[in-house]
Here is the input.
Amino acid sequence: MGQLTAVDASFLNIEGDRTQAHIGGLGIVDTTLCPGGRLTRADMVELVRERAHLARPLHRRLAQVPFGLDLPYWEDDPDFDPERHVHEVALPYPGDDRQLGIEVARIHERPLDRRRPLWELFLIQGLEGGRAAIYCKVHHACVDGVLAAETLAALLDLQPEGMTPPPFTGEPLTSPGLLPMLTKGARNVALHPVRSAEAIARTVPYLDQFPLLGAVPGVPEVSRTLRGLLGRDNPAPSELGTAPRTPFNAPISQHRSFAFGSLPLEDVKEVRRALGVSVNDVVMAMCTGALRQWLIDHDALPDQPLVAVVPVSLRRKHGRTDGNALSAMFAPLPVQIDDPEDRFYAVRGAMRGVKRRFAASSGTWFEGLTGLLPPAVAGMATKLVMQVAPALNPVNLLVSNVPGPQQPLYARGARVLAYYPASVISDATGGVNITVFSYDGNLDIGIVACPDLVPDAWNLVDYLRDSLNELLKLTRATADV
Here is the structure.
């Protein structure tokens, strides 16, 4: 049986009228190699029908425990039919990137039907140059960013001619049934005080790493003392301050905008090699420069760093093959620093400290935090937190970097030219989300924003290009010295 974890369920709990917790991706495809030079909805339906068993989230639905007594279960949908999940729309020809972004935003802002497997796929026709687009969204309760990339790979091929997938040989996944659900749920409720104590033990020693909490008098001292008593590393104190107010830190609306673009991955790697940092450090420096320029445009540049949530995959460490295996770091983005060189080295130093503190915690705080309350209470508590989040302003935005395949992929003969990720915004994490995905020699950027707070998300794509060029200039100047 497959039961959701507290981390998985947290993505169900945060949803409301203005927040949807699915993640997605927009693939631009060249259809000239397809039969008749066109990719059809029938092609995509058949593709999913052949391979859904290779990607478990595609055919599993939620089975709720009565009264919310325990975490939900996954079960195979006995009525699963790709026809219900695969749709086709068309832009007025010749459709451009801005029109495509508007259409994807409209799809992305709509909730998924929880009575069915939690995903949808849209084939978008009408693009110029023999191209089409495939936009797929999957609920975050099913997958994290890394598993979403693996799910994508299960549907696509390494060659235009495709492959014959292996047959399904397992047994359908079923939920336990009403009585076993209630019995196990009652037992878990009785045991939850013990589990809460374990969750507190995982979380409290690292409270000083959290925005807001780390600034509360006495919290850093308590956390450091507890780490000492537990024999855990005591890294340098967090440099995080409180998150400054920005135009994108306010209650979001139910609407979304989506902007996207690509940068050469080799340029990012050139900066990485020359300056002795990771690709993720380069991404963080690019985002810092881009956000600085955007804030200057809006006369809203703070005199202190922004605070970004940076998801971290724990899949390899935990060995999980489904659901979410992730945690998060909190990173300062020193947008207030004018000089590009000083700003870069400030980002580099901050990220080194952030990584050391995260390594000391093993990333267990996120799992501990989501498991503090029993399921029947956790949903209500999460919604309450989401209501007060704008007033608390814990962080400014979410920045994510997901590694992807470095060879071209194909869908029924159509070559995937680019893959732009689309993620979640909320009152708690801010009205803009920057996610990048490395694919086939490029760094593909997807920006999801609330248009009421960020009416010009496409400018951020341009500023990310400018910021990378600024880093390249710094890199080459350093090499010439």
About this structure: The longest strand covers residues 86-95. The mean pLDDT is 89. The chain is about 40% helix and 20% strand. The CA atoms of residues 212 and 474 lie 34 Å apart.
